[in-house]
Amino acid sequence: MWTIYLKEMLELVRDRKTFIFTILIPIFAVPAIVTAFGYFSSSMFDKAHRAELPYAVFGKQHAPEVAALFAADRGFREVALPDRAAIRAAIDKEVIKFALVIPDGFQQRLDGQRQAAVELHYNNAVTVDVIRKRVQAVLEEENVAQRERALSALGLSQQQLSFALNPIKLEERSTAGKRERLGAVVGGMLPYLLLMGCLMAAMYPAIDLGAGEKERGTLETLLLAPVPRGSIVLAKFLVLFTVGMTSSLLMVGSMSALLFAAGSASARSSAQSGMSGLTEMMQSIGAGELAMVALMLAPSAAIFASILLSLSIYAKSYKEAAGLISPLMILTLLPVMAALLPGVELNWMWAMVPLTNVALAMKELVKGTMNYNMFAVILLSTTLTAGALLALCSWWFKREKVLFRN
User: Fold this and answer.
1) Beta partners for 77?
2) Which of 53, 49, 50 is nearest to 99 (CA)?
3) Is the Cβ–Cβ distance between 207 and 318 less than 8 Å?
4) Residue 90 confidence (pLDDT)
5) Residue 28 gets which letter from DSSP?
6) N or C, which terminus of the chain has less Cβ within 10 Å?
7) How does residue 127 score in pLDDT terms, banded at 50, 70 and 90?
8) 300 shares a domain with 216
9) End of a domain among 144, 165, 186?
10) Which CA distances in Å does 102 have to 86, 105, 116, 119, 306?
11) What confidence score (pLDDT) does residue 297 get?
């Protein structure tokens, strides 16, 4: 068995594609993509909130104070349009981003202590509605001023005014520490990156170990060797398990080093930066918890290795194996992403759901709120699932109808 294992590992090490998918992508590509996306998204959001928005306003003579607020804000630039009928065309051509229409009798309604409305015309077919938020922020200033004037006319004291404006004030007292708050965000995405990396790293070698051997005609030679078929399956399984675990652990190491480096650099420039908080969180994670994350990856890698090898053995060709294995990424994504849904928390029910339990356990480990009895149950259930899948793969490999399905 070990001879077959070493032979397969040597072939994979010599293969440039395996080196790229197993070593280069986990260490460099994934952390670089995550960092670039984080920097790009934060800069784009910041740019969207600070960008100058051209706008048009109609009926500003009915509400000069409201029009003056927008004119005084440097984030807005007024553009003259001939009439209200030109609003839609101007927005479609991006001459303006939005238009305000103040109806007749606007000020009279306010003076009569009745609610007045301002029409906002804009294209809201966007994922993040920045325009509405910025317009609402400006109008809120006028709302506050109007409320204070209306209530001050009643001769209320400052305490009575505060009561009338906001009778019940909500004061938050969070019981979660900084690590738990940041860990809920980081821990939600960590299982996705690690498990997807583990699966993707083992996909190409799995296709080669099963369907690839069939196409090259070397499978028959291997079956004629004086080695039990169970040992052959176990050797191939260990190859895929090694590749998947190596890829995941390298990804953990590279991303941890990246967070430490970026956080240390940002801490020197600003102690209040979000990256500095991430560094503090990473530094608060002990070696034992990191070892538990790695330990949780082991049965997951075994599950992937067993499924990938079974599909590759069943396939008649390299192309068919690739077609069978590709949908596996979607099937794997669903239980992992389920851990991010609201209401899905680590309990005895979810501890029995494969992959979802691993994702939830990793999140709790990063947050520092892991129930170690639950961890043992998850590790045991995942290991039993991996063992059952490996037994199925071994039985699958011993069937002639599967091996020589022509």
Assistant:
1) 54
2) 53
3) yes
4) 92
5) I
6) C
7) low
8) yes
9) 165
10) 16, 9, 9, 7, 66
11) 87
